[in-house]
Known about the structure:
Elements: H1 3-14, E1 21-23, E2 32-35, H2 37-43, H3 47-50, H4 66-77, E3 81-88, E4 94-101, H5 111-128, E5 135-140, E6 143-148, H6 153-168, E7 185-191, H7 200-216, E8 222-224, E9 246-252
Parallel strand pairs: 7-8
Antiparallel strand pairs: 1-2, 3-4, 5-6, 6-9, 7-9
Helix pairs in contact: 1-5
The chain binds flavin mononucleotide.
Amino acid sequence: MNNWAAEAWRGVVESAPEGIVICDATSADCPVVFVNAAFVQMCGYPAAALLGTNLRILQASDRDQDARVRLADAVSKGEPARVLVRNYRPDGSMFWNETVIQPVRTEKFDRSAGDACIRRVSRVIGASYRRGGDLVGRWEGGTFAVLTQGEATEKATQYAQVVRDRVRALLMHHPTAGAGRYVTMSAGIASLVPPRTLPLAGLLKACQSALRRAKKNGKDATITAEAADFQDLQLPATATASPKPSAASTTTE
Length: 253
Ligand SMILES: Cc1cc2nc3c(=O)[nH]c(=O)nc-3n(C[C@H](O)[C@H](O)[C@H](O)COP(=O)(O)O)c2cc1C
């Protein structure tokens, strides 16, 4: 499936008139990882309350049901099922929910979904650094390198946070991400005054050290390189003179 098709499928599922949920049977207690608008409307719970939760929440205290036992059996065996189960909205009103379970065996984040995700993030990063002299490239995997000139470290860091917010605002579901379960971005920032020959490799190294710390810090973080990160360059990490070129390497997670 190419990226266009992946995005198109997502649009179709999101706007389908039937309620559709995707649960991750490989995670503990089979949490919801995707829910479409029709399901939200049917059950009355906001998507945020369902994501990361087992759908037994909809049974409230009405657990003594044959349908519930059949669902438990089907889920434990990884088999399809079709049952009529009594479910309840947050206001306590009951509705009959014809629940059809169809197991789908797939990688957690299959290649086409991963590629579509990286393309969307790269569009955000590319659109965020468009001044003459800005250089944006994919570094490796989900990591991008940005080289931008004339930005003081503080300004570059603040702006990276804006870009981080833009990536988060895409609200791309991530099946294994922690808080929020959305794709997030971390950034490592390093800046220096160029010597006669700019040691770009060293600048990138400093970025990568900062990035490693950002990811270690729980992801969705922005970290600025410290003097120690520039050791190989044998240059001061910060200098008072400006303009300063700065490089930000960013990564999606
Ligand atoms: C994809 C999927 C969709 C489900 N949808 C519902 C649902 O809409 N309503 C419901 O009561 N249970 C639903 N379930 C079943 C519950 O998540 C759970 O498996 C069931 O309550 C049996 O497990 P339990 O006895 O541990 O509660 C769904 C399960 C899966 C895997």
